[in-house]
Amino acid sequence: MLVLIDAFGGDNAPKAVLEGCILSKKENPGTDIALVGNIARIRICAEENSLDISGLELFDAGDEISMEDDPTSIMKEKKNSSMAEGLRLCAAGKGDAFVTAGNSGALITGATLLIKRIKGIKRPAFAPIMPTSKGPFMLIDGGANVEVRPEMLRQFGIMGSVYMENILGIENPRVALANVGTEDHKGGPLQHEAFALLRETDLNFIGNVEARDIPAGVADVIVADGFTGNIIAKMYEGAAKELFGKIKGVFYKNMKTKLAALILKKDLYQLKQYFDYNRYGGAVVLGVKKPVVKTHGSANAVAVAAAIRVAADFASAGAIEKIEKQIALIKE
Predict the structure, then answer these.
(1) I need a labelling partner for 30 at 20 to 30 A (CA). Which of 4, 149, 163, 306 fits?
(2) What are the start-end ranges of the H helices in 115-263?
(3) Chain-wide mean pLDDT for the chain?
(4) Residue 101 DSSP SS3
(5) Distance from C-alpha of 142 to C-alpha of 230, rounded to nearest angstrom
(6) Helices 15-27 and 301-316: crossing angle, nearest 10°?
(7) How far apart are CA 244 and CA 269, in angstroms?
(8) What phi and psi, each to the nearest 5 degrees, are found at residue 61?
């Protein structure tokens, strides 16, 4: 199992990427890792930060894509970037999966045009795994497609269900449609038509779900257009960050609360870890022919290591082949 990783993707690259790869090798020694990027700069960074990268394979790429670059640049002026080269290597079978913390738009464009879509898939989607009080759920689409058609939402539901069953081991995953109410008639034309299509599938479709109920673990797969999904994801992360900031403020208020914090330190740490999005490795890209994982632009070493683990699990589960079979059964 070889996971390719974009050495220059993300705000903290390449240092955080190198640290994440080293951490991943310690946690999962059976997974081989290859860094893709300017080899000279990678080695300089490793030397300056006393990082041992001797156990990592290196593939050279002369350029890099910034967060500000146009998504189409990956096929044009940035075609020799670390992201583009990593995707090409993965497509050619020189790696089993690809990970980046880089430009989201460029990744979707590159994955679609270089790795290619699964036959029948209309649009690839970001599918982050997020926490609830009853366990993790998948949000699909998390931001790749702002405008979608009803049949795309049906495909999102199918892909999400296959992933959750085969990667996370959830039997007969509950699939729900993000909406402004739980009643069948809620939403606009997109939601009405998507609801009807999802209900016709063999999925365990439980109907509409409101955003306020998602943290309670009402479903295993939440289907949404990319605009709605991205808002849900960002609000989720922001609310968790603010909540723990306020909790910290309460416990550091005075000597009495500091003593209480000391007593509850282990429990508070476990609670914070439970809601830490860095542990979940970002978002898989569902709908393309190879496992691709997009971790957060601000990813630290923990997030990078988690993304590598997710990519390796994705590649070893055969989920893409199962998605292909399910999509082929759809009668348009």
Answers:
(1) 163
(2) 150-166, 189-200, 226-251, 255-263
(3) 93
(4) coil
(5) 5
(6) 50
(7) 10
(8) -145, 130
Q: Is the pLDDT of residue 270 over 80?
A: no
Say whether pTM exceeds 0.90.
yes
C-alpha–C-alpha distance, residues 175 and 177, integer Å: 7
How far apart are the C-alpha atoms of 208 and 321, rounded to whole Å?
A: 28
In sequence order, what DSSP letters do the residues of 10-66 get, joined into one string?
STTTTHHHHHHHHHHHHH-TTSEEEEEE-HHHHHHHHHHTT---TTSEEEE-SB---
- Beta pairing partners, 293: 99, 284
pLDDT digits (tens, 9 = 90+) for 172-227: 999 999 999 999 999 999 999 999 999 999 999 999 999 999 999 999 999 999 99
The terminus-to-terminus CA distance of the chain in angstroms comes to: 36
**C-alpha Rg value of the chain to the nearest Å:** 20
Tokens of 151: 């049949």
Q: Is the dihedral of CA 61, 67, 73, 75 positive or negative?
A: positive
In the numeric block, which tokens belong to residue 250?
């309460």
The two tokens of residue 169 are 């081991």
Which of 145, 150, 109, 147 minimizes the C-alpha distance to 127? Answer: 145
Q: Look-up: residue for tokens 């909790």?
A: 247
Which amino acid belongs to residue 115?
I
- Greater confidence (308 vs 246) lies with 308
CA 175 to each of CA 120, 157, 158: distance values in angstroms, whole numbers, following the listed order: 21, 7, 9
- Which of 232, 235, 265, 231 has its CA nearest to residue 248? 265
Pairing of strands 125-130, 283-286: antiparallel
For Cα atoms 322, 325, 326, give the angle at the middle one, nearest 5 degrees: 90
Please tell me the distance from the alpha carbon of residue 313 to that of residue 228, in angstroms, as a whole number. Answer: 28
pLDDT for 278 equals 64
